[in-house]
Amino acid sequence: MNHEIAILAGGCFWGMEELIRKLPGVINTTVGYTGGQLKNPTYEAMKTGSTGHAESIEIIFNPESLSYRNLLEFFFQMHDPTTPNRQGNDRGAAYRSAIFYLNNSQKEIAEFVVSEIDHSKKWPGPIVTEIIEATTFYRAENYHQNYLQQYPNGYTCHFIRPHWKL
Prior knowledge:
Blueprint: E1 4-10, H1 13-20, E2 26-34, H2 43-46, E3 54-61, H3 68-78, E4 86-87, E5 90-91, E6 97-101, H4 104-120, E7 130-133, E8 138-139, H5 147-150
Parallel strand pairs: 6-7
Antiparallel strand pairs: 1-3, 1-6, 2-3, 2-8, 4-5
Helix pairs in contact: 3-4
């Protein structure tokens, strides 16, 4: 089966994973940490804010069923890309909005989508989502994987914002 990988950060990875895993074309999701300096970070180290990592999700998807562009458009419907280092009650650089691109094509698509969203004025402020070359993605501890499937009433600050759709 044809597949691609995307790495996104948009606040708490539990809520992101729960919404993204349900998209047609998504093959697998893994929550973890990326974008920082510390090798093999743990949740305890990451939440101090000293590692530079963001809570992120690695998405394996079938591009014949779900394009990278459509995945990014959904990403911008499920979190607020105008709040630097914050989603809901979660604050700090670990909860920033970021697209970690894996190749030039992903970078170009990300830049285009961010520009298109920013110019749409559907959000109340400027888009602050970072577009960064991907570095090592570190899988989070097992208890974070599929967290909201294990604990359906667990915390999430993610929801679909129907007012924003291209």
